[in-house]
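Q: Convert this sequence to structure tokens.
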Amino acid sequence: MPEQQSRTGQAQLRHEQPETGRPKTEWPKTEWPKTEWPHGEKPDAARTDPERGGATVLLLAMGLVFVLAGTFGAAVAAAGMAAQRAAVAADLGALAGAARAIDGDAAACTFAADIAGRNGGRLVDCRTDGLDVLVTVEVAVTPLPGLTRVVASTARAGPVRG
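A:
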């Protein structure tokens, strides 16, 4: 039965791949990869460069420093903004309370609390002294996740004395 060879056998005789019919690719038998070492021998693990990868660690450390500095700067800026918001809320609350001081303590403090609340603050203390109104406002700030602080500001408003 040598005359009746299978198609696979014919492909092998013609040096073709049996499933595609394409010529086989013969790769040269070489040592891969070929590397020439400076002293003719491969270095072992104990003789490799101990500083290899040091720049990567240095860059990661510098990146961490920049991230921490940015986070600290953002926290300081958030605290400053909260202090400014508390001062504005206290000033406007005191002015609003002074405008209603003639109607009595309750009316002045209610109006001062409303205006302070509209400006992001919370009225903590409100006192009247004649037509002068003294208010204390608090603003909560979260400069970092899980770290909430309260900033307080006091303002006084009343008629001009001369």
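The mean pLDDT is 82.
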